[in-house]
Design a protein that fits this description.
The structure is a homodimer. Chain A is α+β, with helices and mostly antiparallel strands and about 300 residues long. Helix content of chain A is about 35%, strand content about 25%. In chain A, helix 2 packs parallel to helix 6. The interface between A and B is large, with 70 and 70 residues.
């Protein structure tokens, strides 16, 4: 057992409030008056989530976007964020502030508060708490998938991997791929449109297969994913080809921030999304290629 | 200008929502439906806020208490917290989890969510976001002090300093002094009782004089503090004596988590607190000893 999963088990023993959703969901949901408040906290660390040569404006954008993506997965309208920031080089700090300003303006979200610390000689550690209000009476969880539901994903997968690989290798990369890694989009409008029709929803942050396995576990159901149906961008297919390996890489690398959701057959989607699998009675993730079963890879995604 | 104050200025330029209170208050106050939500985020870092030989159970208690203290200063009833935690030695992590459980149970507060990161070889950095609901219609700020108001503080000052000094020197210390440093109390009930009668309120976290100067600045008023009136515990006076120096130390060391507040003359306090000064037309902090002016010390408190 990793130290992370061990610690999360300790936290789950403490987090007995139903609002915490067993720490199994993208965000907590609290009823305040007649409103449902959705709240989440994600951290990023230097050397883990970004390299030393990363643009601090991008780091700021990304930490806002990944938090808002958790709100998107609950169909919440974001209200504001609080920032926990470890100070360092003042030029880096100023560029981070500029990126924070960009991202908050883009998503029309307020900076509400926060705190700073100075830790000499240590890697930086930055946390964002994001707060939103639910737009739909019943706020869906990961745990609602039912037998017969179709599994969908928005957009394309693997583009963040492609942007990361190309820029790490010092190659010129299409801006769309670079942005997929450095400046992911939080799919707020998509989440708001989806929540009335979904049975379960979450964002794809750690790799599609890992996140599907979490949804299957939370829903106590089996989910079959057809790798041949996974949506790849033409840019991704040009770089890696369209093979079992390239599809498996796109399905396990993570950092996609697309929305993964389940809906009953016949549900009318509010926009186009790709059907990639089906829920059946059983337990856990199963993968196939156009119907032929495939062994699960050793790593389903990014565990940190 | 320190890197901290520089960064906070950059953040204040972004935090234009009135809910953020110019980042000058203990917490943000957001209206959700007919309720006022109070939210704050405080961080603590290894080597800055706790030493390597600190008990992780105490570290967990303290980071919960200092966040709840910010809610207390708004008269908010706490609901829950989210935790940002950097993983490390698993025994330390488990002891921290036990302390977190203690503190949340003591204050009847839910763990709602959070995130973990692994930063190899770096000092730990832990953040808590605390969420509460206001108990009084108008949520007081630091900025409401008016000409003629009396300035009060709860409890005694300097006990955390005494606990820290004695234990750092390897001496046996009274448990009350050790607890003042290691396990401060968040004055939730006191805050709820005070908010209906105060014009301004905040908690004393960074040193009384520094926090009074912030209240004076936020309120655009002068505040005269009489050092001779500052409440010292008998334990503190036994150790340091009752001198100008010992009073100045108690007024500038910080980590007290008492409530500092202003109320009009004639206001009936809900419990005993010590009158330590008065607000007048003017600007900023002024210190006297039984009426004789005293020069301000170079350091008014702890800046981090």
């Amino acid at each position: 057992m990793t130290s992370e999963s061990n610690f999360i088990q300790l936290m789950q023993a403490i987090a007995t409030s139903p609002d915490a959703r067993g720490l199994m969901d993208d965000a907590a949901v609290i009823t305040i008056g007649h409103q449902s408040l959705v709240i989440t906290h994600d951290m990023m660390a230097q050397g883990v989530h970004w390299s030393d040569d990363a643009n601090p404006r991008d780091v700021a954008w990304k930490i806002v976007a990944v938090n808002l993506s958790d709100l998107a997965a609950k169909g919440a309208r974001p209200i504001g964020v609080l920032l926990g920031f470890s100070l360092g080089d003042s030029q880096w700090d100023a560029a981070f502030a500029a990126g924070l300003s960009d991202a908050l303006a883009h998503y029309n979200v307020a900076l509400l508060g926060g705190d700073t610390v100075s830790i000499t000689g240590s890697n930086r550690c930055i946390g964002i708490t994001a707060l939103g209000v639910a737009t739909h009476t019943s706020v869906p969880a990961r745990s609602g998938a039912r037998d017969g539901d179709i599994v969908y994903v928005t957009g394309t997968l693997g583009d963040a991997k492609a942007g990361f690989d190309l820029s790490s290798a010092g190659k010129i990369a299409p801006i769309a791929l670079l942005n997929a890694f450095n400046r992911p989009a939080a799919l707020i409008a998509e989440g708001i449109a989806l929540v009335p029709i979904v049975s379960a929803i979450m964002d794809v942050s750690d790799g599609l297969l890992l996140d599907v396995s979490r949804m299957a576990e939370a829903s106590a159901i089996a989910i079959d994913i057809d790798l041949s149906a996974i949506p790849l961008s033409s840019e991704y297919a040009v770089i890696y080809g369209d093979t079992l390996d390239s599809r498996m890489a796109a399905a396990t690398w993570g950092d996609d921030y697309q929305l993964l959701f389940c809906a009953p057959p016949g549900a009318v989607l509010p926009f186009a999304a790709t059907a990639i699998g089906r829920c059946t009675i059983g337990f856990g993730l199963r993968v196939n290629l156009s119907g032929s079963p495939i062994e699960l890879p050793a790593k389903l995604g990014f565990e940190h």
